[in-house]
Amino acid sequence: MKMTNKEDTANTDIGPDTTLLLVDDDAPFLRRLARAMETRGFTVDTSESVTEGLAKVKNQPPAYAVVDLRLEDGNGLDVVSALHERRPDAKVVVLTGYGNIATAVTAVKLGAIDYLSKPADADDVFNALLNTSNGKAPPPENPMSADRVRWEHIQRVYEACDRNVSETARRLNMHRRTLQRILAKRAPR
């Protein structure tokens, strides 16, 4: 992960409330991102679990948040939803190493403003939080494979069923254990 020091961007567009909550169970990544965001003018608080993140949102909802999707004790979307309920104006970016369209759509519906795949550098996170990117992202060089399209469809149905494996398997006419194995794997390329 590339962390650059951008003193010229520090505190320029953040606004009066500079509170930022980072929720990620990868401790080294969390420390590096926290340091990088502090140099850009944020007042950073960190959490390594959904439970801890929810407690911090309940006690003092931040103006900004960067939340990992998959955490050891649950789904980061629960933190996004709780923050949006407590503070609808909060800007949330979801980070994940397991990017897919269905969870991106769900994250946006729950109040996230952007969805970034890991590894994302501090500039990408900063730009997403402040929405300072210049135009649209370039189109992908390689389109999705048939396996990836299938995986995306499964993820979309899974999210539509509120992450209920049995109901998703029934709707897809698939054995529940087969679906569990598919969901446990990383997305195909």
UniProtKB/TrEMBL annotation:
GO biological process entries: phosphorelay signal transduction system
Any GO MF annotation of the entry: sequence-specific DNA binding
Alphabetical keyword list: DNA-binding, Phosphoprotein, Transcription, Transcription regulation, Two-component regulatory system
Residues bearing the modification 4-aspartylphosphate: 68
UniProt keyword Transcription present: yes
Location of the Response regulatory domain: 19-133
Role of this protein: Member of the two-component regulatory system ActS/ActR acting in acid tolerance. These data implicate that a two-component sensor may be involved in pH sensing and/or response.
Name of the protein: Acid tolerance regulatory protein ActR
Source species of the chain: Ahrensia marina
